[in-house]
Input
Amino acid sequence: MPKKKTVIVTGGAGFIGSHVVDELVARGWQVHVADDLSTGFRSHVNRKAKLYILDIRSDRFRNLVLRMRPTAVVHLAAHIDLRSSVAMPKHDADINIIGGLNVLEACRNAEVKHLVFASSAAVYGRTAKLPAKETSPTGPNSPYGISKATFEEYLRFAQDAYGVDSAVLRFANVYGPRQTVQGEAGVVATFLSRLMSGKSVTVNGDGRQTRDFIYVGDVARMVATAVSRSLSGVFNVSTGKETSVNGLYKEICEAAKFHKEAAHGPAKAGDERRVSLSPVKALRATGWKAKVDVKTGIRKTYEWWREEIG
Output
């Protein structure tokens, strides 16, 4: 028989995943982490959680789910680099689609009734009306976005065909402590890394492009809420506010007390000019909303970098 309030978190040693694990542990869940440590760190895993070092595409993962028969699975493990997905779309699909299907099949075979999936703002692509709502058309313009949107469709199918209910959480640009320079939304970590090592900072394009930056602690709260409430449906996890890259760099400089002008390089091909997601549906369904503004979040992130990275 399954143990009460047991959850498996794929990618739970990573940036977002480790914060999710912390939040679930704090809420009384028994947490098992499945992570191959390709981008995650053993040291980030909460001591009250159990770590299994394995690939989500493996039979070992399927056997873990069958053995544990958890109440829920949180699927965060992914190939997260949007730009490298353009160069290696097959690799991206192998992890994000084939790996995701292995997670889904394991849930089906173990009779897990609830899955929480970390999707992305990248599924929207270029949206005419901002902030984008969950009902806005999707039109991803990268293999990464395509893989996320594709797995969303598999989950929709699985609910009807297999009885595996799911919450699809479309993350905006997540930042915060434990973030590395890898990934689709690593600009905060990239700027801090270069500033603190005395290197110059280059902003792609004119820096007026905007993103919806959301603090990782707020994201972890929403994921844990989705698990605790067995939430079903598609939800943006966002602030609904736009922050320019220039404005972000200014906040980082103020937090770190650096006074260094950034250089400007060519804009990256395929980058969206503006990104913002509406968080209203999540608020109405659960009462969740982002609590940490960009200024406070950047300060918290800088303090972590100063103490842990130096």
